[in-house]
């Protein structure tokens, strides 16, 4: 079977696996599970990991040119082979964004907005989980409840950064770094979308000084073509008469 | 009577109700009212709530297709049916923005600026009230006077975030979240408006490399039309003479 | 004499007065002057105030329609009549920006950059002076040296906001507010200028899909005009011959 | 030999010198070298300085008009003649950006992105080294390990600014200032690039209302030229026949 078919069929299972993983992980972290419950959650998480692993191997096997696909998916490799690095495991959640991609509306700007909003919410949620997981048990850490973690993540992605909470472990700071980059991206996309919208609106308002469009140029082209036609007609009658008179 | 007429007539009463509500709420919170005064303020606030309630019901009753209107105004519903959540009550103030919309000038960019400036000031003012209301009495809260709340709100909406003050209650943090999003929007609109303005100015300056406008294209079209006319004329004289000579 | 002439002649004296004022103020604040030196600095500051006062009155007197000019210069009025509010005195420095306006280069974007850079530096410098002046003597204030004030101002205008220093007096917070707005403006202008520049560069690169310019349209118009001319010529020879043959 | 040839030949040696310098400096600072190791690192750093010095002198000597080149390279002068100011020494690293310039792809936006990403990473790395170097030994400084310095630099360039770490020495704050400006530039470029991209995508989508391009106008011009040609042909046959009939 081809890679296309595999990917088509694998999409939903992967999405569900990502959701299951996220739920299990959230449950484990927020409830700070111990004993049986903890083991259950962990095993669910590992089960989802197996699914991603299988998908990666299958893709590699079915890829028309393996080496090319491999080189183009180093990131997926990291996600799959380094599940030991707990924060990295969360990258699986990115699979969920593909859903957003589909569900999004037609107009480009709308799509961008939906996508960014979804990605930001997911990022904030995942980052708070991961930071709580990483920092909770650290000495002199101040992020110890999910509420605080969520608050910290929001304060960080908006680049406000009160500093009432901040990660102290390396893992926590790595996650924070990702969150800050997310914040810059968020700010950038919001501004850029607004700019493109305002530029458009301003143009629409002052109708006459509106930018010339492809459509208008096409109209022009067509008009001139007709002109050409008439001219050719005239030329023909000319020459025909020319011959008759010449005779 | 139609929904349009209702909305037209209801606009001013609602605006006034929103102002009265805001004043009463500000008075109650800033003065930290007790006893009779407190009861008075509360009853005024509830009175304004009744007005909004009536408006919502009337709209629902007069809407041509009820279900459609209902689905399109979930937000209004929340504002009306959840006044118990004190912060949510403040959303009524949004009514005031409709006034801004009208009073604003003609040019699109000017309108955006006026609107955003007004919305930001309102947001800062309302958020400081709400945070003070939520956090004042909380243990180990550091926002205890309106001055501090105002300062905190300003530091937050500009995304500076010193952290000398920050909310500790869930309600307070919810409000802070709204304020931060407002800050990102503010930053975005300011930048976007400036961008659209600079792009325009740059274009105007280098007259010759200015973008071609709708107006210019229209001129072209007209010019070519005349050309066509002359050509048709020539063609006619041609053919007429063709016949005479043919004769 | 006309208002134009007055303003032309007054420009340099005002600029110098603003510089003198700034130097005297900086000297007074940084050195925390007492006794004779303090009195000297204060009197210099008041002297400069007189100059601004005179300029305002003269403008009002010479204005073609007084009321219109008055309404359009409320801000200048505040600067002049409220020198008691120490922070407000600093607004005189705005006069210096007019110099920047002149010295700036031709191209619009370059001018914007020079102007914003100059304004930001001035803002940071003035704000640190004012905050130091306002907070130094306040209880539990942490801005006590000019170095700290400068550092604080820079951290604030870039919206980083560590919170290691922050004003505690109302005057100080007022100044901080101005500085934060300055920061948002700074961020906005930098981004907007970059955007307009990148959009331009991208367009230049892909020559063919470059936006159609005014210049190109002008060329087109001219080309069609020539076409029209040739056509008219043909038409004339036509008709003339038509008459000859008709004869 | 000409300046061009010198610069062409000097480019790689300078790049390597910058890398060697950076490595030696990083090694010295991170490992907080003492004794022999410290002396070794220092001497390597001075050796690289000599290379930059030689390059500067050679450029000055080979420049067609010395004075012009000198005036246009004050910055290089500072880098070379003030190596005593330890932070300034780091400016040599800027040489590395020239490599980025070359390695970057074709499309303008891609190039901008690569360039900015590279510059930011370099800036963060260098700034953390410099701040650690400057603040480590200062009393009541809180940046004492490279990990903390890196974290601080990242928190600063993203303008989040928790304030859990912040420099206390003048040198450290100078570096921080540069980092903050870098942050504003970063934010600006990200947003601007996104804006230019979104504007383009939106335009592409709504094909018909796409902006008229240079290419389309060129097509038009050509079309009209052909029209002119036909017309001239007609005119010629006209006149020729005119003469024959006239005969």
From TrEMBL, chains A, B, C, D:
Protein's UniProt keywords contain Transmembrane helix: yes
GO molecular-function terms, A-Z: voltage-gated potassium channel activity
Domain Potassium channel: 124-199
Membrane-related topology note: Multi-pass membrane protein
Domain of life: Bacteria
Keywords from the named record: Ion channel, Ion transport, Membrane, Transmembrane, Transmembrane helix, Transport
InterPro entries attached to this UniProt entry: K_chnl_dom, VG_K_chnl, Volt_channel_dom_sf
Entry keyword annotation includes Disulfide bond: no
UniProt-annotated location(s): Membrane
GO terms classed as biological process: action potential
Cellular component aspect of the GO annotation: voltage-gated potassium channel complex
Protein name, per record: Ion transporter
